Amino acid sequence: MHAFEYHRPASLKDALALGAQKSEGKFLAGGQSLVQAMKLRLSAPSDLIDLGGLQELKALKVEGSKVTVGAMVRHAEVTGSKEVQKAIPALAELAGMIGDRQVRHMGTIGGSLANSDPAADYPAAVLGLGATIVTSKRRIDADGFFKGLYETALEPGELITSVEFPVPKRAAYMKFKNPASRFAIVGVFVADFGGGNVRVGVTGAGPCAFRQKDMEKALAAKFAPESVANVKVSPEGLNSDLHASAEYRAHLVTVMAKRAVEAALK
């Protein structure tokens, strides 16, 4: 690990000011990805700006048909929230599937989305639910947020402050997990908002999370497992590694989507 300067700002304003001053610095959320990258010398920020003390980023609330999760809310808080369990059970369940107990008690939704790991779970929910990512500068629709491998629409110095999830009629998340890391080899989040408005978010399969439009169209016509059972997903552009080939991941997208629809209907 390379040497760095550590900062713990007392307010969001101070954190943003430090971010603007330290061009080679990084914001530190839960540290579950960044610290590991630093240990491996894959990342060498000049400064770490710790967001852990910022109460402004820790709100978790349900208001009407919207669930708002602050950027520094831990995964364990989402899965343990009675309000989230009632409003969007699938979101609480997804948070409970992330990593192990330590990761769930340290990792944050803001850190996960800003990192945009291709196998992370939250991106599937963000796309599947059509969430809005609120930053220090603007509001970004889910469809415009994930750009590529570890790449998002965030600009230098821009910080996620919260994520707003609309409440669906029904939803579910299913993933085929790596048995060691528990990352998603493929994960699929399906959400039905009624009136033929269905969204399907996929993670683990490609360089970043994406929507499966063919499945959305099929489920809009009939929200049933058989609607997606015969949807053939192209392996072109999907990830291929020691865990699974692109062809196998394409197959898993269909399998996990079918299971997610089955779970949503229960």
Structure in words:
The protein is an alpha+beta fold. It has two domains: 5-50, Uridine Diphospho-n-acetylenolpyruvylglucosamine Reductase, domain 2, CATH 3.30.43.10; 58-264, Uridine Diphospho-n-acetylenolpyruvylglucosamine Reductase, domain 3. It contains eleven helices and 14 strands. The chain has helices at 12-21, 34-39, 75-80, 82-87, 89-96, 101-106, 109-115, 122-128, 213-221, 225-229, 246-264, and strands spanning 5-7, 26-28, 47-50, 60-63, 66-70, 132-135, 139-141, 146-148, 151-152, 160-166, 170-177, 184-192, 198-203, 210-211. A five-stranded antiparallel β-sheet has the order 4-5-10-6-7. The protein has a four-stranded antiparallel β-sheet with strand order 11-12-13-14, sandwiched between helices. Strands 1-3-2 form a three-stranded parallel β-sheet, with helices on one face. β6 (132-135) and β7 (139-141) form a beta hairpin. The longest helix is centred in the C-terminal third of the chain and has 19 residues, at 246-264. The chain is globular, with a radius of gyration of 18 Å. The chain starts with a strand and ends with a helix. The model has no long low-confidence stretch (mean pLDDT 95).
